[in-house]
Amino acid sequence: MNKNIKTKPSYNQEILKILKNKYGYSYDYIRKSIRGDRSGEISEKIKYEYNKLVSESRKAIEIQVSKL
Q1: How many domains does the chain have?
Q2: Is 5 inside a domain boundary?
Q3: How far is 62 from 42, CA to CA, in rounded Å?
Q4: Rounded average pLDDT over 2-25
Q5: Whole-angstrom Cα distance, residue 34 to residue 50?
Q6: Residues 50, 34: contact at Cβ < 8 Å?
Q7: What pTM was computed for the model?
Q8: pLDDT tens string 14-39
Q9: Is residue 1 part of a domain?
Q10: What is the superkingdom listed in this entry's lineage (predicted)?
Q11: Domain-located, residue 2
């Protein structure tokens, strides 16, 4: 008997805090916006900004790693 194991996506908690402070929405709404469960202008902005901040943080980490 095989069980299907679904994993939940892991979101950057620091970026979620930034978006929560900026927009004032709950973490649940922000996660649903990123996932695409919510539609609208604000949800699209949240999704865009989250993805932009994640890519910028990865670049910053890569730069710091290359300096070591």
Answers
A1: 1
A2: no
A3: 30
A4: 87
A5: 7
A6: yes
A7: 0.82
A8: 999 999 999 999 999 999 999 999 99
A9: no
A10: Bacteria
A11: no
| Residue whose structure tokens are 């949800």 | 43
- Per the structure, the complete domain to which residue 22 belongs is given by 13-67
* Rg value, the chain, Cα: 15
Q: Does residue 24 belong to any structural domain of this protein?
A: yes
**Which pair of tokens denotes residue 51?**
């993805």
Round to whole Å and give the CA distance between 28 and 16: 10
Taking the C-alpha atoms of residue 23 and residue 4, their distance in angstroms, rounded to an integer, is 36
For 33-67, the pLDDT digits (tens) are 999 999 999 999 999 999 999 999 999 999 999 98
Whether the Cβ atoms of residue 16 and residue 30 lie closer than 8 Å to each other = yes
Please tell me whether residue 65 adopts helix, strand or coil conformation: helix
